[in-house]
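Before we proceed, please read the two lines closing this message. Tell me what the token row says about the fold.
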Amino acid sequence: MPNVTVLISYARADGKAAADRLREELQRAGFGVWRDIEEMRSGQAWKEQVREALRTVDGVIVLLTPGSFASKHVRWEIEAALTLQKPVKSLLIVSWDKLDGLKGLPDEVINFHHHNLSTEQVYSSGFAALIRDLNELSTGDRNNTPTNQLSQPDGGNSRNISPESNPDEREPLHILELDSGMVEKTNSSLESIERISKENQLSPEQEQTFNDLKARIKLFNRDLEEIAQKAETLIADVEKSLANKLENLSTSAQSILGHYPPERDSNNEKILLEKQLEIIRNLRINLSDGKDVVDWLNQTRSQTAKNITEYALSAHPNLQNRTSLEKENFHLLIEKLLERISHCLTWGRTTILDSLELPLVFNDDIDVYETALNCIIPESPRRLSNEGIKQLEEVITYLIRKLPHY
């Protein structure tokens, strides 16, 4: 009897009946089938549940119908399966002429060989061909599955990649690409965790969670809020576990993980752990120190921009004869730069200042920008922390250096 489990991806609008029939016949043939309706758990997001299922199944069967081409859910399931390097089998449930010209599914699926189950006359032969393909998953495809996916089938159970076995097997970190505060903050957390992961200081559970986040970022760079929450929880958990390891080392000379090479003594481990804790704690300190400055900038950005714009223009008499529109655009651009400065302090990163969407006004006299930017700190209230002001100075200095490159 085959030891293969599959997930059926279909559109409920026109594929449910075919999916129910296929599920019953596959189960009678000895295959396991993940059932979306029966096995969905209430209170948990459907993407998370399907993602968990995809890690444990051996392959995915896509039912090709007009509804599946239009379904965002089906496309998501296929892309997730391909990213996790799961074999995908396509079944024609309607004649191809009803699908010709439709768009919405990945090219990889459209170009796959399709087993035809569209009529009763061809159903038996198509189903037999599908069974042959699925039987191969229990021997050929499974043994050839690349080693860099998150988990692999192993006798019906999943096994996690051991981070100590081969560092090259880790899922690469895919940096979030969308330009938002949450993205940049999460990137900072993930990069800190990545540095710690390379030193094999994550527990297997933490490594698996980290790998999961990296795979999800590659696929779903729009799921920012959920990823940010998980990254924040994970970095807090990593900080806690590293602190516990450090405390244990202070009271014991023995290896705390039991898998380090013998030449690593407890003192070296303590130094390593202290450096890794410093990565996280510096990140947290920097973000918290700049929070009061961020709050001030966000609350007064428009008025602050107006004040420093007026002063900068008065300090450059050669600009007084410029048009009202140019002066207004200068004010708006200064307000935009204040927003960017606020983002830098929020996220602990200055790289977003490396480019600017809007062209500089008065690009023939960029000194006026330096004058305006140097007015920011004098405009700030005395209640702001010294560390926050120091961070603000560093960001302003970085921005002034970048001005000639805009």
